[in-house]
Amino acid sequence: MKKFIVIFLAVIMLSITTANETFNGGNKVKLAENASSNGSFIVQWEKSYGKLWWWSARYEGPQPVGDADNDGKNELLIGGRDPFMRVMKYDESKGTYYEAAKLIDPVFGIGYGIWVKIGDNWHRLPQPFGSATGFGIADIDNDGKNEIGVAWGRHFSAFKWDGNRYKLMGRYIVIGKDEWGTTLDCIIGDYDNDGENEVIVTGGYENEASLIAI
C-alpha cells in the first residue's frame, strides 16, 4: 500500500508539472522581430513554466550553452526547481527555441520529500525526484565528445547523445535518504591538470564534504 501511495503521488506531481507549463494562459513564448534602434538590450525569447511556488520551475542559476549532441550547433540547458532538465534547440527557420529533450533521473528513496499533514501531524513522504541544481555541457568521459552532467540535489548523473536520445551513462549518489543536504552546482573541467576532465559537485551536506570530485 505504501509503494502504491508513493507511485500515485509521483504520477500526480508529474501531471502537475506538465500542467504548470500551460498555467495561467499558456506558455509565453515571445520573439523580438526587430532589433532595438537605440542600442539597448531587448528580450528575444522568454517562456513561463508556471507559478506554483512549491513545484513550478524556478531558474536561479546559470543556464549553460554548448554543443550537447555534438552536431556542431549549440543547445541551451534549462533546469531548476522541478524534476526536469530541458534541452532546448534553436530553430533558425522559425527564429525561436523548441524543447528537443526532457531529461529526468529518478532514484527511489533519495529524492526530495513531500510533507503531508495527516491529522495534527506532518509526515514526510519519500519520492524519487530531485531538481536540477547545477548542470553543464562538456566532455565528461574524455572520449572527445560532449555530454550533459546534472546534479539533482542528492545525486549526480551524466547523459550521452546516442544519435536518437540522451542516454543515462552513469550516476553517483552523493548522500543517502537519511542524510540532510543538497547539491548546489556541478563544474566540469581538468581540475588536477592531468589532461582529463573531472566533475566537481558542490553543495551543503550534514556528513559529506561540500566539494566532491568525481
Short précis:
The chain contains 1 helix and 13 strands, in the order H-E-E-E-E-E-E-E-E-E-E-E-E-E. By secondary structure, the protein is mainly β. It has a domain of 149 residues.
Protein topology:
Blueprint: H1 2-20, E1 65-66, E2 75-79, E3 85-91, E4 96-103, E5 114-118, E6 121-125, E7 134-138, E8 147-151, E9 155-161, E10 166-173, E11 181-189, E12 198-205, E13 211-213
Antiparallel strand pairs: 1-2, 2-3, 3-4, 5-6, 7-8, 8-9, 9-10, 11-12, 12-13
Distance between the termini: 38 Å
User: Which blocks of ≥5 consecutive residues have pLDDT under 50?
Assistant: 1-36
Could you tell me the radius of gyration in angstroms? 19 Å
Helix percent band = under 10%
Number of strands: 13
The count of helical stretches stands at 1
Q: What class do helices, strands and sheet pairing give?
A: mainly beta
User: Strands across the major sheet, in which order?
Assistant: 1-2-3-4
Write down the overall geometry: globular
Helix/strand order, N-terminal first: HEEEEEEEEEEEEE
Mean pLDDT over all positions = 79
Sheet with the most strands?
A: 4 strands, antiparallel
Strand content bin: 35-45%
Textual characterization of the structure:
The chain has a domain of 149 residues. It contains 1 helix and 13 strands, in the order αβββββββββββββ. The chain has 214 residues and is mainly β. It has a 4-stranded antiparallel beta sheet, with no helix packed on it. The N terminus is likely disordered.
